[in-house]
Amino acid sequence: MLRPLLSLYSLVPICLSLSLAACGGGGGNGAASRDINGAGGALPSMQEIGAPQATGNTATDGFNWTNFRRQQLGLNALSRNSLIDKAAQGHSDYQRINGVITHVQTRGASGFTGEEVDDRLIAAGYVLTIPYAYGEVISASGHTSGFHAAEDLITAIYHRFVMFQPRFREAGAGAATAPGSYTYFTLNLASTNGLGSGLGMGGIVTYPANGQQNVLTNFFSDYETPDPVADRNEVGYPVSVHADITSSVTVQGFTIAPRGGAPLPVKLLSSATDANTTSTAAAIVPLNVLAAKTTYDVQFIGAVDGIAVSRTWSFTTR
């Protein structure tokens, strides 16, 4: 079995005016895909209502699975952009050629297409016109399934913050497989010349979505760097709330409990408690694996853009 490589996510940058035009995509956080089991311990269920049909093309399947999950939250489907595809494919090819996984390419190396994410988007012909935002998530796995790659990245909570950003409008994906080695999957997301409509002031979406079935019970925390739960590896499936990239989320209370039971011990990830969590989202990670075939009730109390927000919802594990 191939050992997993780390996959990184680029923190979502935003440029709203000329004074902020120098902003770019940093980031050193990541997750890894296991050869078979993945970050969450199982392949995605193709029996879910509305799940896309597999095409066998890693990039296309990864893109389609991302949209499937976004739409479960009530987010807009991302339009596929051929120029973003070109940037993403070039970066997957670069990683395959050089046997590395990174957001930053080295000038002069084989397959070089641009140092940073925005450099690669521009080199592919994608025009970043203020206001704009972009992000990148990447994985390397011994598995060639695009569904698997996207689901692993969604399970990895820091990656999820990027993939479920409401105001992204379009995206592109690329994949490259080194024979006998890893499949490198890259997903780039962007909005340019104006951001998507998003959720508006005080708006949030939640994941897992209300009523969602077949939710994974676990997450291998050590496969994300920085590790969101540093003192243990296998933990419960992360639960999150997401607001617009222009918004700020504050948390007053965030709990999860099996129906009829007591709240579980969790690790809270918010901008106030965790340096690696964006201010536009928050999450809790149960410290123990969730029970199978169990309904969990979640409550979030806080504020978005200073507007009080309270949500309760439930989901059921597989």
Describe the structure.
With 318 residues, the protein is of the alpha+beta class. 18% of the residues lie in helices and 31% in strands. It is built from five helices and 17 strands. The strands form four sheets. Strands 1, 2, 3, 4, 5, 6 and 7 form a seven-stranded mixed beta sheet that branches. It has a four-stranded antiparallel beta sheet with strand order 8-12-15-14, with no helix packed on it. The longest helix is centred in the N-terminal third of the chain and has 17 residues.
Brief write-up:
With 318 residues, the protein is α+β, with helices and mostly antiparallel strands. 18% of the residues lie in helices and 31% in strands. The strands form four sheets. Strands 1, 2, 3, 4, 5, 6 and 7 form a seven-stranded mixed β-sheet that branches. Strands 8-12-15-14 form a four-stranded antiparallel β-sheet, with no helix packed on it.
List how many beta strands DSSP finds: 17
Shape: globular
- Count helical runs: 5
Radius of gyration: 18 Å
CA distance, first residue to last residue: 26 Å
Which structural class do the helices and strands define?
Answer: alpha+beta
Average pLDDT figure: 87
State the major sheet: 7 strands, mixed
- The share of residues in extended strands comes to 25-35%
Helix content: 10-25%
Low-confidence stretches: 1-8, 10-38
Order of helices and strands: EEEHEHHEHHEEEEEEEEEEEE
The protein's oligomeric status is single chain
Q: What does the secondary structure layout of this molecule look like, with pairings?
A:
Blueprint: E1 6-10, E2 14-15, E3 29-32, H1 58-73, E4 79-80, H2 82-98, H3 117-123, E5 132-141, H4 146-155, H5 157-163, E6 170-177, E7 183-191, E8 205-207, E9 212-215, E10 218-220, E11 234-236, E12 239-242, E13 249-258, E14 266-269, E15 281-286, E16 295-304, E17 307-317
Parallel strand pairs: 4-6, 9-17
Antiparallel strand pairs: 1-3, 1-5, 2-5, 5-7, 6-7, 8-12, 10-11, 12-15, 13-16, 14-15, 16-17
Helix pairs in contact: 1-4, 2-3
